[in-house]
């Protein structure tokens, strides 16, 4: 691992333009007037003070969204018109890509170049995908009997509360906002308290694009206050959430004990990355390494349990260590950097404590394991071998650059061990044997299986988990249908011979 000092960054940090709540088409202070600080994880300095929304603000935002849904133009526009406006929104996002990318890079410690060329174009892409879907929402016709016929109408579900995490502030916001808009819903977005800035920027651009007031509202603030107020709100018709499994449970409970609104949950993971003997080690080891440490390991689909078949084990591990040694940790605005700081002090300490668990429980620390001796929340890419399935680092989601490596012998064994987790989000299967690839893909209980690739996303490819990784899907047409509900309309037919 190499480290770089952030003073070498020559990027001009943009002026922060939007720090207030966005309700009913206006930037406003919170009712309480309270603010909170968003911190730059590179240097622990304050980036900006942002309005701290709470229950009263959520009430105002939901009221605006309710009015925009019940009486406003958005759900009543022709789908073509919604499509036109959403495409404009996508264009505006691409016009401002540098500025938005800088906000996410600063707020979340993400690599600026990756956000600029990956996350933000993905946001625009997803908007275009759902803009194109807006006029392809249709139900079915039902020939029920000789006396009855019917059809189904797909209607927007209503006011949607969207609770977003901090690791991919832009994509995870738009994976929910775009389909909700295409469906004709109105939304109240609660971005993560660590990364509030880009959501406010999107609200501003939504207005510029012509999205009517009240359709997109953003309440920045904390989870147990603003987030809880949204998920327990009696006038919210649906909650879309991405975040931890623990908070997913709280949200489901809040929904169940308020108005029984449906929720969709995209939660944690502990994904197996399985490598069989027949692969090209020089190609697959870098993929496995990046699969675990991409976005500093702050990604729910991190391939954090690496299973390597015994025949290539030693060679593969050697290559992983070489990767780790040349991996540059440092300022995310420096184009040479491959890994920025962890999001905040809490996560930083949590990751370090998992590393301690790994050592104490008897895993062998091969490389990394330390934080960098400087300001900011930087942690070395860390590789443990001799990890057993029972160890904490093999079971719990670490959300940091920590890879647990395990050896296996047979297909049957690895399927069993890969499934030995409460999670079921993703899995990687690396082999040139088609039969093994298909067998493992069918046998792993996870929502996404990547064969000979990893992190391969597309707006058309549904994404979500099995088991404690959640339910329902973002992206694809499944991602649209969860913001729609089905109405069956039935009429009698008299004297029909058919
Ligand atoms: P992570 O573990 O990735 O930080 P969390 O699940 O804690 O993720 O947070 C994801 C989102 O959920 C954030 O926007 C956060 O503010 C919100 N959140 C946290 N606690 C609650 C809660 N009790 N009710 C609703 N939202 C919450």
Automatic annotation (TrEMBL):
UniProt-listed InterPro entries: Ald_DH/histidinol_DH, Ald_DH_C, Ald_DH_CS_CYS, Ald_DH_CS_GLU, Ald_DH_N, Aldehyde_DH_dom
Superkingdom as given in the UniProt entry: Eukaryota
GO molecular function: aldehyde dehydrogenase [NAD(P)+] activity
Entry annotated with the keyword NAD: yes
Keywords linked to the UniProt accession: NAD, Oxidoreductase
Domain Aldehyde dehydrogenase: 27-489
Keyword tRNA processing: no
Catalytic residues identified in the record: 266
Pfam families: Aldedh (PF00171)
Protein family (similarity comment): Belongs to the aldehyde dehydrogenase family.
Subunit structure of this chain's protein: Homotetramer.
Name of the protein described by the UniProt record: Aldehyde dehydrogenase domain-containing protein
Organism of origin: Solanum verrucosum
